[in-house]
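Ticket #364: bound-state structure for magnesium ion.
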Amino acid sequence: MSEPVKLDAPVTPGGVIGILGGGQLGRMLAMAAARLGLRSSVYCSGYDAPAFQVTQEYITASYGDPAMLKDFADACDVVTFEFENIPVASLDYLSELRPVHPGPRALEMLQDRLTEKNFVRSLGLGTAPFFPVETPEDARRAFAELKGGAGILKTRRLGYDGKGQAKVTSADEAAWACEAFAGAPAILEGFVEFAYEASVVAARGVDGSFAAYDPAENVHENHILRRSIVPSSLSPAQVKNAQDIAQKIADALDYVGVLGVELFVQKDGTLLVNEIAPRVHNSGHWTLEACACSQFEQHIRAVAGWPLGDPSRHSDAVMENIIGAEVNAWESLAKGGALHLYGKQDAAPGRKMGHITRLKPRTK
Ligand SMILES: Nc1ncnc2c1ncn2[C@@H]1O[C@H](COP(=O)(O)OP(=O)(O)O)[C@@H](O)[C@H]1O
Ligand SMILES: [Mg+2]
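RESOLUTION: The complex was predicted; output attached.
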């Protein structure tokens, strides 16, 4: 394998940002790129992807198709991605042709919950207790190790919005859940009785510069993000702690781009890292209206080698996801707040169809 291509000069206006993945995150990245005078090319395995509607170039092909990946790379100045289930081998291949940010090693580390959690621990950061599980016997043994009343079995790969997860309250349940995963490698995590959930969205530039947004307080329903609130209930010291955690992670991965770090805030005030998303994050959508530079623009700036933007927040914000059939109320939703609809046709249950952000003058 040859050396990865490095970005030795910023992508100039008119240049092309290649985005792997065509969902709403890719859509909002492409729109942010356009505002900066950059073009985008979106590569997605699906047809009629939300991001296709707002980009100059789009390609429907498998993420493992070398010929199509090469055509895509040839037409881009830099390549990034909006979702973490891109095969690492494809990212490695692309990185021999064009600079790829974040890089394949960061993706490799974070797309598997076991390597991700071992990495977080290696930085001296806290996580829920976890044990690797491959067989029902492993699941029973791991459940016994938890010593608490409950755990969550999670597949190591490909989970999102609570998919590939099962809450278990006995060794039998843990074993059954493992069987239901049909041999997919998993981890059993201790169930954390957190006070609330929070997240920090931050960016690291090509030059190692770092910028973090104010952490958001997050409310999940059915394992799907319902709302993000800023400011959060975190104290100033906890805010700094959260932002330092994100910086430690980003530095250790030599990360370039935006990442989202999901946190459990424990009742004693300590923070545990739940998961790290190597991409823009749903809990950062409020930055579109409440900050001079949104997380989407920030990501484009970072991957294009531009100076990072100002992450400071001028307003308080509550971002609410619009899920499934809730989108049918678009007309009344449009009456209050900044409405974003993602251009998806099928309002399937649990599908993120849009979001709405309501602002108030900044209080703290
Ligand atoms: N160990 C845990 N203890 C308590 N709640 C959890 C735990 N793991 C996950 N959850 C809940 O499930 C949500 C989704 O889990 P997460 O691991 O973030 O997966 P994903 O976001 O990829 O679906 C979390 O935001 C949290 O609300
Ligand atoms: Mg999560």
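RESOLUTION NOTES: The pocket of adenosine-5'-diphosphate (ligand 1) is lined by residues 128, 152, 159-162, 189, 191-192, 197, 220, 223, 262, 274-275 (CB under 6 Å).
TICKET STATUS: resolved
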